[in-house]
What we know:
By secondary structure, the chain is of the alpha/beta class. The protein contains 8 helices and 14 strands.
Amino acid sequence: MLIKSAATALVALMSLTGFAGPSAAANAGEDDAGQQAFSFGVIGDIPYGDAEIAKFPARIQDINADSSLDFVAHVGDIKNGSSVCSDEYFGYIRAEFDTFEHPLVYTPGDNEWVDCHRGNNGAYNPLERLDKLREVFFNEPGKTLGETMPLKAREDLGLPENVRFTKNRVAFSVVNVQGSNNSLLPWTGIGETSVTPEQQAEVEHRTQAVLEQVRDTFRDATRRNDRAVVLMTQADMFDPSLLAAATANPDSVSGFREIVRTITEETNRFDGPVYLINGDSHVYAENQPLAEGSPWLTIYGQEAADDLQRITVDGSANATNYVRFTVVANSATGPAAMSWEKVPFKE
């Protein structure tokens, strides 16, 4: 039985900005036949813990059995926050990802690198773990995991995980934005009590690349007359569990401020709906986080963006389903360009 989302808004999905550099094919990530309806699935914060790790192959097979899907996205956190970030574990998940029979787009989560400084994670330097993730999961920039689908990737900036593509006049952009205030919390597990220069440099480089990609995504979507833009991140920049702390101290989400401001500015300029799909907070949600009257407007200090729709996928103990998004054919008439529903796993 499918759990239908109440939202069937005018949505078209994700605009992922990340160019593959001058050597990449000019049309990489561009849709050749943008008239057909299509669907895609999204998961995140999975697998968490031994029981879910054991179930993960079956979860993948459930998704593989959904022949309606054109691709799948994993929006980060391939492990829980209290387990070891080992090479062996990364290799295991990569092997499982390779069993996807649809193209798989993956963006790293904070559990697999940012939080790896924790003692129970192995007391790693997070930057070393990020390098390892890129080596294991992004060894062929511009290609998806699972089945191959071309993408525009920013390996020229050392960020092969930042990708974009278009389909049926919907622009998709997947960018590396991390929970834990976008990786601005001290690495206390390895003895740091404040942000290190190396940590700060990584955050600044990655954030500037995100801002550039978001702007490029909207620019190209406008040029192509796309119907919608879809952004995907690991971080939930509007996590309701952080609302009280962020209201009391807006600096607790300072790592997201420029990104939210840029998304707002571009959303308000774009003539169509914008969708932000994320994981991180583990509880399914759909709302307009920057609508008029939202407390997040004060926290981030900016104007409203009524056309921004946020969809958070279930994760951790709630990861008992994937979310299937369906975009109608480009020639279809009527107000609903996209709908979504939660599809339960079999067990």
